[in-house]
Amino acid sequence: FSDDDECDMGTDNCDRDTQDCINLPGHFNCTCKAGFEHGSDGKCKDIDECALAIDNCHALAICKNEQPLFSCHCKEPYIGDDWVTIIIVDVDECKLSPPPCNPNANCKNTEGSFECACKDGYKG
Question: Among its keywords, does the record have Glycoprotein (predicted)?
Answer without folding.
Answer: yes
